[in-house]
Amino acid sequence: MKTELSPEKSLAIISQMIEESKQSYKHHSFYFLLWGWLMIAAALGQYVLLEMENEFHFMPWMVFSIIGGIASGLKGAKDKKIHKTFADKVISYTWSGFVITMIITLIAVVPANPNPFVLLMSGLATFITGGITQFRGFIIGGVIFWIAAIVSFQLDIQASLLVYALAMFLGYIVPGYLLKKS
Fold first, then answer.
1. For residue 10, what pLDDT is reported?
2. Is the sign of the CA dihedral 21, 27, 28, 33 positive or negative?
3. HSE value, Cβ hemisphere, 13 Å, CA-based, for 106
4. pLDDT at position 88, please?
5. 14 near 158, Cβ under 8 Å?
6. Degrees, nearest 5: CA angle 67-71-76
7. Cis-peptide, bond into residue 111, ω within 30° of zero
């Protein structure tokens, strides 16, 4: 026996699905805020250590990346209990691909300045996330990363660290808080 839904019931189901989808995207704000603040701290930490001519100026990246990896892993394990939409899966694969590509790039360009390359990749992944979620803050954030990458290609490593920190703030932190607040 086939049951037909009334137009009101169909509209209610569609509205509920849209609302669940919006709520699903809010959990992405955690990762943008976490990684935004950690990468700002790493960039500024390296900047300070370079100013001090410390030979271990690269260490903030390692320390904050390990912290971020652990925190992301714990949050991801907790989020496995939450129903994942197709869009969540696409975003997850986008960012997993970002991490793998970034690691390969960092190995390939070290000891050169990797900041412009990381900004390019951040722009791509952030832009894709914004397109999938239809959240304009991440679309604009992706464009900000691309502009920062273009600028960074013209700078030495120290100056590019400051551009990197500013791009992280505008590309991850501001949209992350806007998404969390929405």
1. 66
2. positive
3. 14
4. 80
5. no
6. 145
7. yes
Tokens 């496995």 sit on residue = 80
Q: Where are the alpha helices (DSSP H) in the chain?
A: 7-26, 28-51, 59-79, 86-109, 115-133, 136-152, 157-168, 174-181
pLDDT at 16: 60
Q: What is the DSSP letter of 3?
A: P
Q: Do the beta carbons of residue 40 and residue 168 sit within 8 Å?
A: yes
* Cis, peptide link before residue 114, omega less than 30° from 0: no
Whose CA is closest to 118, among 92, 137, 99?
Answer: 99
> Tokens 């590309």 — which residue?
171
Helices 28-51 and 7-26: crossing angle in degrees, nearest 10, is 20
Residues counted in the chain: 182
Looking at residue 83, its pLDDT comes to: 64
Where the chain has pLDDT below 70, the residues are: 1-3, 5, 10-25, 81-83, 110-111
d(CA 65, CA 39): 8
For residue 171, the SS3 value is: helix
Per-residue pLDDT, 121: 95
Q: Tell me, what's the pLDDT at 42?
A: 97
